[in-house]
Specification:
341 residues; alpha/beta; D-Maltodextrin-Binding Protein, domain 2; 5-stranded mixed beta sheet
């Protein structure tokens, strides 16, 4: 079965489970919509696991994933009421905070950021490191360049630190779905791109691209300011949360519980629980085995990680005066997640 077809089946199954929960739930069960990338991504995996394991029902909520294409969609979904919460990159959320004063972060989901700078196969031998990318076209994992995603901020900071200024490359949006990303590399529409998982692993497996930088490689982390930044987190609007704190408290409990489950189970058990098969199973196993520090083990805020994230954000937005003034503590809502050093 193709990965695209498997993802469609996975999305349909998750939505069906969520709908069934809503139909069979007690009258006091809270319906909760979460806006996030997916399905079948490393970003959506914890939420999909939580639904599969029934953790939302155990906490008296019925979670419905709303899969989105990134960019400014998380903020619009929260403001319009299409979603109660959103899950996406923390540096991107910090830019959202500049537009919406009520935008807050409820808990971390990731531990170590997982990004891979991939280069299309036709350039092998010519491009060996980020400094070689001057004059080339760089794909951004987004559907628009209007809103600077986490991967966009990371790409610009990395290239700048490698001596490649913003004016030395051409940025294009390569999309956020496998079909658009793989097509961009296959056709030569992009020469390189900061790629999310499991896309990076799949691009390499299919011979479409090769890696020249990984955020998980110790030797390469020194290129970045704030290399240990928080990538994926749970976000919401403070005024909505204060008006209905029960939903937020239960969401945090659900996600912390599933993060503990992930930390105590093998990659094989994780993909089995999600009923992944075929190529999708193989790719996700490779990603999970290679990145044991992908997810937080307890879902508590780390003071050290928050400091790293603030350093990363300021370094990635040097010409944005409002971004320079923003402190990460101003948007951390840790009432239920808690903190650690």
């Amino acid at each position: 079965m193709s990965i695209a077809r498997h993802l469609l089946r996975l999305a349909a199954a998750i939505v069906a489970v969520a709908a069934l929960c809503g139909a069979a739930a007690r009258a006091d069960v809270l319906p909760v919509t979460v806006s996030l990338p997916g399905p079948g991504s490393t970003v959506s995996l914890p939420l999909e696991l939580a639904i599969s394991l029934g953790y939302d029902r155990a906490e008296g909520i019925a979670i419905r994933p709303r899969y989105i294409l990134g960019g400014g969609t998380p903020l619009r979904d929260l403001q319009s009421g299409l979603a109660n919460f959103t899950i996406h990159g923390m540096p991107a959320a910090m830019l959202n905070r500049l537009q919406e004063e009520h935008y807050v972060t409820l808990m971390p989901i990731d531990d170590q950021p997982q990004y891979v700078l991939m280069v299309r196969r036709g350039l092998k031998g010519r491009i060996k490191s980020p400094r070689d990318l001057a004059g080339y076209t760089i794909g951004i994992h987004a559907n628009s360049l209007t809103n600077r995603t986490t991967s966009h901020q990371l790409t610009e900071q990395l290239l700048q630190s490698s001596g490649v200024g913003r004016d030395k490359v051409r940025y294009v949006a390569e999309g956020t779905e496998w079909a658009s990303v793989s097509s961009a590399f296959r056709s030569g529409a992009v020469d390189a791109g900061m790629t999310d998982e499991p896309f990076a692993t799949r691009l390499a497996a299919e011979g479409l691209a090769y890696p020249i930088f990984k955020t998980t490689a110790r030797a390469e982390q020194r290129r970045l300011a704030g290399e240990g930044f928080l990538r994926v987190a749970l976000h919401g609007l403070r005024d909505h949360i204060e008006a209905d704190p029960a939903a937020a408290e239960r969401m945090v409990r659900v996600l912390q519980k599933v993060l503990r489950w992930i930390a105590t189970h093998t990659p094989e058990q994780i993909v089995d629980q999600l009923a992944l098969g075929g190529e999708m199973r193989k790719v996700m196993l490779t990603v999970l085995r290679g990145n044991p520090r992908q997810y937080s083990r307890d879902g508590r805020f780390s003071t050290a990680q928050l400091r790293e994230t603030e350093i990363f954000f300021h370094a990635s937005n040097p010409e944005n005066a409002a971004a320079q003034r923003l402190t990460i503590d101003s948007m951390v809502f840790d009432r239920w997640a808690g903190r650690k050093p």
